[in-house]
Amino acid sequence: MKYLEVVGWDNGYDFEKIVTKGGKVKFPSIVHKPIQKENLMYNKTNDYSKDNMEVVYEGITYYVGMKAFNNSSDGGEVNHNPKKFKYNSEMAKFLAGITCLHNEKKIDIEMLVIGLSIFNKQKDRREAEKFYKDRTFEFEIGGQKREVKVNKVTCIPQGIGAYYDIAFNSKGEINDASYFNGRFGIVDVGGKTTDTFIGNGKEIINESQASIDVGVSRAYKQVSRGIKSILIEQAYLNDQDSVRYGTEEIIGLKGKCESSFKSLSETIFTNVMNEWEGQQNRVDKIIILGGGAKNIGQYLKEQFIYALEREVILFKNPQFANANGYYKLGLYILRELDTNGEE
Predict the structure, then answer these.
(1) Which of 52, 78, 162, 278 could form a disulfide with 321 if both were Cys (CB 3.0 to 4.6 A apart)?
(2) CA-angle at 177, arms to 176 and 181, nearest 5°
């Protein structure tokens, strides 16, 4: 059995990000449920990899990540439900990802830290914690029975994860006390939404927090209505300059995507400034992160610097900022529980 003290899981709308001690993995948040055909479903466990993830959960076979994308006729299924944590497809993604990091028959996780959009109410976060807490998830890979046990669970608003990624070191200890005293703005650009808030030390300014229904997937959709956005996204990420689906074809894909990213950054910037309602005038610095920041982060940074003349931090690896922060927060919480003698 593999024991994991903490696992940070960012169940994104575009990519899954999972962080454990000594390892992390990222893959497209896509599943495909193939038609069962004799002699075609066997998958040796030693062939299992990030690009070849196939799991059976609750009696259903799921291709996950790039395997789903490559085998589906339209690129696979993406779940945009705000409460998607309750769906079997999301559990299949997590089980597939944690097996990539630790290919063991049994895994015991002491603390799982996850996040939900600021759009989700506190009761949703409590529901998510209850859903995963004290549960053992059984599944199969290549005909081999596996299980992952989750003991404790903490669910926090997305975006705050990046705050903990900066404030804590890799051991979950306070790394930079200034983030517990200063005033900063967070802009977390995701696949479907952009979460934002202004923090004053450990407190969030209520009037500043918002989940804007605009994410980087909109930029891909704006490139073409005739081709599914996930096909456009994967072509762009694979450095292709064209993509075809049926009779539809896009030539000069890179330029079209970059133009759409710039337009999207202007939309997000305007929405964020409106949501902050003047609170931005008191911030010390602004932090930009999230999967979408890889595409539009530089455009957003330039706009904030021009408008506010403040320091703007663009994460070097923005897609892992939340998951890293979840992991570090989990270490901090466990140490506090141990110090205080709590169960």
Answers:
(1) 162
(2) 130
Of 299, 289, 287, the C-alpha closest to 319 is: 289
**Strands of 144-157's sheet, edge to edge?**
23-28, 15-20, 2-11, 106-116, 144-157, 135-141, 53-57, 60-64, 31-32
pLDDT digits (tens, 9 = 90+) for 265-293: 999 999 999 999 888 999 998 999 888 99
Calculate helix-pair angle for 293-308, 253-276, nearest 10 degrees. 50
For residue 50, pLDDT over 70 is answered with yes
**From the CB of residue 257, how many other CB atoms can be counted at a distance below 10 Å?**
22
CATH fold for the domain made of 2-157: Nucleotidyltransferase; domain 5 (3.30.420)
Q: Say what the pTM is.
A: 0.89
**Confidence label for 39 from pLDDT (cuts 50, 70 and 90):** very low
Q: Quick check: 225 and 262 in contact, CB under 8 A?
A: no
Cβ–Cβ under 8 Å, residues 230 and 75: yes
CATH 3.30.420.40 positions along the chain are 2-157, 161-322
Query: Which pair of structure tokens corresponds to residue 94?
Result: 């997590």
* CA 107 remoteness from chain centre: 22
pLDDT for residue 343: 52
Q: Could you give the 3-state DSSP secondary structure of residue 49?
A: strand
Return the CATH number of the domain spanning residue range 161-322: 3.30.420.40
